[in-house]
Amino acid sequence: MPQITEIFLDCDNTLVLSEELAFEACADLANEILEKKGLPDRYTGEQLIKDFVGQNFRGMMLSLQDKYNFKLEPDELEAYVKKEEDKVIAKLEAKAKPCVGATEELIKLYESKKYGLAVVSSSALRRVQASIKKVGQDQYFDADRVFSAASSLPKPTSKPDPAIYLHALDYVKKTAGETVAVEDSKSGALAAIRAGIWTIGYVGSYNGKEMQEEMSARLMDLGVHIIMNDWSEFERCMTFVENLPPKTDPQSSL
Q1: Which residues of 126-138 are buried (b: 16+ CB within 10 A; e: fewer)?
Q2: CB of 106 within 8 A of CB of 140?
Q3: Residues above pLDDT 90, as percent of the chain
Q4: In angstroms, rounded to a whole number, what is the distance separating the alpha carbons of residues 10 and 128?
Q5: Which residues contact 45 (CB under 8 A, 6 or more apart)?
Q6: pTM (two decimals)
Q7: Which of the pair, 112 or 250, is modelled with greater confidence?
Q8: With contact defined as beta carbons under 8 Å apart, do 252 and 197 qualify?
Q9: Is the pLDDT reported for residue 250 higher than 60?
């Protein structure tokens, strides 16, 4: 059985209900770019979530460039990334709420002192910090245990690239085999799985039973080890993982 000593938690729509707010701002900028490039398509925040959930804005813009066959110059992209970050943070600081039950589980984990706790996100560090601070979750994480694929790496990236998980493992000096990740998106789950980490797929932030069932199936197909429908199931999910056979090669090769 694996000896779990560390828990890595995604932020957006896993700890904090931030995706809807963030994608509203992203849609405004995506549409500005499409208009500037002479392209007729336009996005709503809901459509962006459907196509790009789990990716940060930089990853989204790379995907848009591939989809519509246009190019943003590096300085142009960086200007939009900074603009998006400011817009999203303003929305989060005004309206962000915790995922149902997440804070209650964090309190229990923090007080138990059984596991190390870290946030591992694709989003920019300022955005992650603003999110967890707004909902009062920042007190459960040391400042140096909040990791961002957009800000914490020498070269910015986005999930499903496992680089941010590998970086976090290295920083906290843990192996993948003694770590559990909680992820709500396909790209996030794939990043954790590619890093060889035990992964719980959380679907409680998706609207409606049908969407939750669809995402559960997709996440299981990717290779998550168990689905968590609600944060009240977290202890049961951890018990399930802790009773799985240990990994022979805890960290997958890239």
Answers
A1: bbbbbbbebbebb
A2: yes
A3: 82
A4: 10
A5: 20, 23, 24, 26, 27
A6: 0.84
A7: 112
A8: no
A9: no
